[in-house]
Amino acid sequence: GGSQIAELPEHPGAATLGGVLATARSPLRRSRLLGVRERVLEMTVVTGDGRVVRSGGRVVKNVSGFDLHRASVGAFGSLGVIVSVCLKLWPIPAAAATVRVGSLEEAKRLNRPLAIIETTDGIDVYFWGTDRDVTATIDKLDGEARTGLDWPEDPVARFAWSLRVPPSEMTSAIDRLPPGPFLAVHDSGEIRLGTDDVEGAVELRAWAESVSGTLVLVDHPGPEPPIDPWGTVPQTVEPQRRLIREFDPARVINPNRLPGGV
After folding, report:
1. H helix intervals, the chain
2. Per-residue pLDDT tens for 67-89?
């Protein structure tokens, strides 16, 4: 199970599993194997006022009242510090391959690949299965095949961004990106972008929000971000404030880190 956990995300670096869950850092293969929120079966957290709270259960179908284990994913610790977790895992098949294809249309000829990822270098399709399945899939595609899952690294730049849009808007989003390296996870609606063009990012954020998307500033140089990291405050901010007060009434865990200064 350790190797599967390490692949949340595929290049974990120094990240801990708790940090990955707290920031909702989903894997590149989530269109096939779900995002981190959907993979959490059970979680124990320590709230801001010292309570130890467990939510969920170690079965796929469980009923346990409020889904604190799901709400804690992406909450930056605002509902409690994650101290233990049970995840849904998958066995690793015998074979896997990565194929560079010439177009998105060719990539989408496959039935539910692990991922279709576009970068400045091109479009790659990822899949796994038995040796026979993988060989047959390679034969269906007209492209360069590499053995194993050759996952790309995140773009490197002084300013790192995460763009989320409806999957139907992915092509339009790629056309609107300011200059810089990018990693687009097709069928999931996420584009990881590295660009120092902050003005271009502001324009991209306005467009993204017009199609029900978001653009988040993930990393930046210096002590203060040049713009609000999150963008327009969501309409759910007040229910979020009330929920957080139930678990961290003194607001001692990561205050002012969430949208709207929550």
Report:
1. 2-6, 17-22, 30-33, 36-39, 68-71, 104-107, 131-140, 170-176, 198-210, 237-247
2. 888 899 999 999 999 999 999 88
